[in-house]
Specification:
The complex is a heterodimer. In chain A, about 75% of the residues lie in helices and about 0% in strands. By secondary structure, chain A is mainly alpha-helical. Chain A has a domain at about 60-310: Orthogonal Bundle (ABC transporter involved in vitamin B12 uptake, BtuC). In chain A, strands 1-2 form a two-stranded antiparallel sheet. In chain A, a hairpin with a 2-residue loop joins β1 and β2. Chain A is globular, with a radius of gyration of 23 Å. The radius of gyration of chain B is 20 Å and the shape is globular. The N and C termini of chain B lie far apart (about 55 Å). The chains are: A mainly alpha, B mainly alpha. At the A-B interface, α6, α7, α12 and α15 of A face α4, α10, α12 and α13 of B.
């Protein structure tokens, strides 16, 4: 009787992972199928994806480098989601944050490096936080839907960014690729160590996810947020400051996205230019939804997505597959992750039944 | 001299409104149809790009631009079907699926379209309404593609269809109150899948216009966010096909203001004009929204407005 009991218990614990497993399997099959139909070496491609993402120290560096902004961009979706908002305009906060960080040294010349970097981070966070906070404010004050509002504001932000970078903030020396005046080499954020060539954005991203986890799981604010996200009427009835909480999550989320922009500028590009409008916003949304808005899961999902993106160049070099191969893989992966989510209600039911069985066998043991 | 410049400016604006606005007409009518059924499809951008690629590839391979247009519609139909089917599963968020579809559609188009960047496919022909004029600018401004007229006819047809046919009423009922539709014996899930697929078909045609007429070739930077703009446009038009038509032309004109100003030598604010449609929609939403009331005209089942 006892081993069966253990099986029931283990089954109950493993079941929540089932949709993710099935999604991974579906993705694998569909991706292989797609490549086979194209007459491409499918199995080899799958091997190269894994190799290009996690196969060597260099691959890991590449993967983690790409994962850093994704974590921060995903938090811009996941934090407001705790209060029941779907924000899809993180890209706007990211580019404006990056721009703010890029121009801060111009306004604060002569500041030592560390305080200057802190000021850059602060200005990026303030601008990003303001931009997404605006969405929260418009929603609470005017009832303007935050999903569409953030999407629209994001495009307005990109237009402002382009206008400023091509116009008043343009470095006259940047001829082909309009950019702001490049950061001084001393201000550039370097790798964590010589042996580990990933910039500090990764550390900040992971810390931000951990802090977010503490905020949403272990704090009073997080609990209040869950009430707001669950049922606004209840939240109002028990006297929670709903408006303030909603706007707070938006500001925090936007600050994360702004920070992502700052790292793109200060650790990768060296100046604000069109290269930072690279679709991190959309990738962040996918990461957040794949992680079911859980900050710890965001770390894992961001690394996974970063890995897929990192493997693109290997696929291109070895098999001559176009860059878009990784986009297809991402698209299939996220579509199937979302589709298998449909199993959740069933899984809850199955878990209940398994628990019942486990208790029954336990009871039988005790009585017998 | 000033008169001439003003004429140039308005001609450029008119031509731009029609030329840039035509894909907006198709994409927004498609999105309008989908949203009327109570779902939002943010993946139209992906559908538009794959439609553009499929249309161009098929037109090149078959030698006929119109076959290409149909292929583009078919591609959009399939992707719309995918979106509709997945969103019909329980607990699946249509906004997230839309974004996944955007990535997937763009990826497929870029992957499969790699070989079609170089060759020249036959393009759609335009009707020269301005041939009476000696002025080169007038002639080029009034050379209008057939798809524009099809789009206009479609807007009228949808306006009539949604108001006065059994199908239209059923679609609106499903979008406004799925419970009642179910009580009357309709199946909301099927209606929504069909509406999303039809919306995808139209968005695909909008893509074919981009690759086969204006700008008229396939490359990876072809779309400048027309698919996303359609979502804004439908809200701006308050979910009414006729208003979608006017809004599409207005957005087309707004997109043409920057280049039109450039044609008369003013180039400040070029990028800001590109965002004018988004800012305009936002302003309209901000003015008309009230905390305790959804946008008037919005389908009741739409996740955006509930």
């Amino acid at each position: 009787m006892k081993p069966r009991n253990a099986v029931y218990r283990a089954g109950g614990l493993l079941l929540p992972g089932l949709p993710t497993l099935l999604a991974a399997l579906t993705t694998f099959v569909l991706f292989m199928l797609f490549l086979v139909v194209q007459g491409k070496p499918a199995w080899q491609a799958c091997q190269l994806v894994v190799q290009g993402a996690f196969g060597s120290a260099f691959a890991w560096e590449n993967t983690l480098q790409r994962a850093a902004p994704l974590m921060l961009a995903a938090l811009c979706v996941a934090l407001p989601a705790r209060a029941g908002l779907i924000i899809i305009g993180g890209e706007g906060a990211l580019v404006l944050g990056g721009l703010a960080a890029a121009v801060t040294p111009l306004w604060l010349p002569g500041l030592p490096v560390v305080p200057l970097l802190l000021c850059m981070a602060l200005s990026a966070m303030v601008v990003g936080g303001f931009w997404i906070g605006l969405n929260g404010w418009m929603r609470q004050k005017r009832g303007l839907n935050e999903t569409i509002g953030s999407l629209l504001l994001s495009y307005v932000a990109i237009a402002i960014f382009n206008q400023l970078v091509e116009g008043p903030l343009r470095d006259p020396a940047s001829l082909n690729k309009p950019s702001t005046i490049p950061l001084d080499d001393s201000v550039m954020i370097g790798p964590i160590s010589d042996a580990f060539q990933v910039h500090w954005g990764l550390v900040v991203g992971v810390i931000a996810c951990l802090l977010a986890q503490v905020l949403v799981r272990n704090s009073v604010t997080g609990f209040s947020l869950q009430v707001v996200g669950g049922n606004v009427r209840t939240a109002r009835m028990i006297g929670l400051p709903v408006d303030r909480l909603v706007i707070l999550t938006c500001v925090l989320g936007g600050a994360c996205a702004g920070l992502a922009g700052m790292f793109e500028v200060a650790a990768v590009q060296g100046s604000a230019n069109a290269a930072i409008i690279a679709g991190y916003g959309a990738s962040g949304i996918l990461v957040a939804f794949a992680a079911r808005q859980n900050p710890l899961a965001i770390i894992v999902c961001a690394i996974l997505l970063g890995g897929i993106e990192a493997s693109g160049s290997l696929l291109q070099r070895r098999l001559g597959l176009p860059n878009a191969t990784t986009l297809i893989l991402e698209g299939i992966l996220f579509t199937s992750l979302l589709a298998w989510e449909a199993l959740t209600p069933r899984i809850v039911a199955w878990r209940l039944r398994l628990n019942e069985r486990a208790e029954q066998t336990q009871g039988a043991l005790q009585h017998g | 001299m000033a008169d001439l410049d003003l004429a140039t400016f308005f001609l450029a604006l008119l031509a731009g409104a029609i030329r840039v606005g035509t894909p907006f007409i198709f994409v927004s009518l498609g999105e309008c149809l989908t949203e009327k059924s109570g779902r939002i499809n943010l993946g139209l951008e992906g559908i538009l790009v794959s439609g553009a690629m499929a249309g161009y590839a098929v037109a090149y391979l078959s030698g006929s631009a119109w076959t290409g247009v149909l292929a583009a519609g078919g591609t959009g139909l399939l992707l719309g079907l995918l979106h509709g089917a997945i969103c019909s599963l329980p607990r699946v968020n249509d906004i997230a699926v839309g974004i996944a579809l955007m990535v997937l559609g763009t990826g497929l188009a870029f992957f499969l379209g790699k070989n079609f960047i170089q060759p020249q496919a036959p393009s759609l022909v335009a009707i020269g309404l301005g041939d009476w004029s000696d002025d080169e600018r007038v002639r080029s401004a009034l050379s209008i593609n057939v798809l524009f007229f099809i789009g206009v006819a479609l807007a009228f047809a949808l306006h009539w269809g949604l108001r006065s046919t059994r199908w239209g009423l059923m679609l609106r009922l499903v979008g406004d109150h799925a419970e009642s539709a179910r009580a009357l014996g309709y199946r909301p899930v099927l209606v929504r899948i069909a509406a999303t697929a039809a919306g995808g078909f139209l968005a695909g045609i909008g893509g074919a216009y981009l690759s086969l007429y204006y700008p008229g070739s396939w490359n990876e930077g072809l779309s400048s966010g027309q698919g996303i703009m359609a979502v804004a446009l439908v809200i701006f038009a308050r979910w009414q096909p006729m208003r979608c038509l006017w809004a599409a032309l207005l957005f087309g004109a707004a997109g043409a203001i920057g280049p039109a100003l450039q044609s008369v030598g003013i180039s400040t604010g070029y990028y800001l004009f590109a965002a004018a449609p988004y800012a305009l929609t936002l302003a309209v939403m901000f003015i008309t929204c009230r905390p305790n009331q959804t946008l008037s005209g919005a389908p009741g089942e739409l996740s955006l407005t509930r």
